[in-house]
Amino acid sequence: MPTLAPEAPPTSRPALRRRAAFTLVAVVIATLLGASAAPTPLYELYQSNWGFSSLQSTLVFGIYALSLLLALLTVGSLSDYVGRRPVLITALAFEAVSMIMFATAEGIGLLLLARVVQGFATGAAISALGSTLLDLERTPGRGATVNSIAPTAGLALGAIGSSLISEHLPRPTSTVFLVLLALFVAEILGIWAAPETAVRQKGALASMRPALAVPATARRMLVATGPCLIAVWALGGFYLSLGPSLARNALDVHTSLIGAVMVATLTGTGALAVFLLRNVAARRILAVGASALVAGVAVTLVGAETSSAPLILAGTAVAGIGFGAGFQGTIRTVMPLAEPHERAGLLSSIYVIAYLANSLPALVAGYLVGQVGLVDTTRIYGGLVIVLAAAALLRKAPVSTS
């Protein structure tokens, strides 16, 4: 069985201590997910400049998720074989290229291509990053907790930051991506100086054959937590693709900030929930997450029907608790069941399920908006999330020791 690389780094290059490297990896996760949310507040500008439709908005979001899925299915386990650092440096370099493409886009064609490159880069990096956190953790469970907090915190910061930059700085559709480009260049240098935590092993090419790598010890638990995981990411997909349109339609407010506030409320309360529940038993976290999803989405639907800003924001905040707790509960119950050399493959499989739930329902919703309108689409989508969360709440997961 492969073992972790020794802690002492090679002397031929500078190296971060493991604690600093752990923090760096968490920041990289947050930055990657923040960059994925950066286009969301800009959809209104794109619509004004290029005549964007709701279907095109969900296509820009969905093509990112599908490209990310392709990366997870092909190179998601690669860091288990060639090492974490080579995969991360390459992925961040492609992410930086996508930022240049976003900054120079003048139409939907280059924007879609940028999302494809960004999605593949994120998919290539995300399982390696999560596995590195687990490799570097000194306190059991800390890596899984940070791996749940960093993505949700990053989504919140990315949405709010993109909105503020686009409204208050010149070149609103370019500046935010140039800022992110600078961050990714700095992070590439940081990862280069970080210690390697995985030993190279044979089988890299074979690992790139599209497949889901779920160890037998984790399959039953992954199936049991699946409905909650799907509900969580389906809800996130709706907010990141159609959330701004819902806010403007329900509240009659025309500013990119309102959509960003909705995304940040969902993901920010999700990050807070992960932090507050970090010492709670995994099965209880799943129950909290499923319950909060049911209640929060129900309140949000009532707010949308009555055009009530307080109800929409309150419902979004409660749903955000479910967003964070549901994902944390899945990670906390499933990941400890994998051996170190199985971590990247299992985490890739979790993210495959997550991003299928994140993208496909959102694409269908974008189509439905053109057929039945945004309000009816929101009712259907919200009802689906409630049913999935209720199913997760009623289904008992196998006992986990985490």
UniProtKB/TrEMBL annotation:
Keyword Protein biosynthesis carried by entry: no
Main location: membrane
Transmembrane helix listed as a keyword: yes
Places the protein is found: Cell membrane
Membrane topology per record: Multi-pass membrane protein
GO MF terms held by the record: transmembrane transporter activity
Transmembrane segments: 53-75, 87-105, 111-134, 146-165, 177-199, 220-242, 254-277, 284-304, 310-334, 346-368, 380-397
PROSITE patterns given in the database record: MFS (PS50850)
Start and end residues of each Major facilitator superfamily (MFS) profile domain: 20-402
Keywords for this protein: Cell membrane, Membrane, Transmembrane, Transmembrane helix, Transport
Any single Pfam family the record assigns to this protein: MFS_1
Gene Ontology CC, one term: plasma membrane
Xref: PANTHER family: MAJOR FACILITATOR SUPERFAMILY MFS_1, RESISTANCE PROTEIN MDTM, PUTATIVE-RELATED-RELATED
Name this protein carries in UniProt: Predicted arabinose efflux permease, MFS family
Organism expressing this protein natively: Rhodococcus koreensis
